[in-house]
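Board work, copied verbatim: DUF1153 domain-containing protein
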Amino acid sequence: MFLRKSTGPRTVSLPDGRILTLADLPAAATRWVASRKATVAEAVEYGLLSREDALARYGLSEEELDSWVSAIRAHGKNALKVTRIQNYRQP
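↓ predict structure ↓
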């Protein structure tokens, strides 16, 4: 197996003990569900993927990525579910 050179780390350990790798990241053209949003937000939060790379790779706005990261920090992954937005929305 051949690995491409990368400028950053290939894996990061998350506080809950899971290991997140570059292979765990969703495809660039993906259907956004809560688990994929959480994976991208955690990758940025823990340094696996730079913020600029995430914005360019997934075509996200800064506000969108910030909202994902802040929702996970404040309420956990459930806050990213579309059916739960009103429960966790900031007034």
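Residues 62-75 form the longest helix (14 residues).
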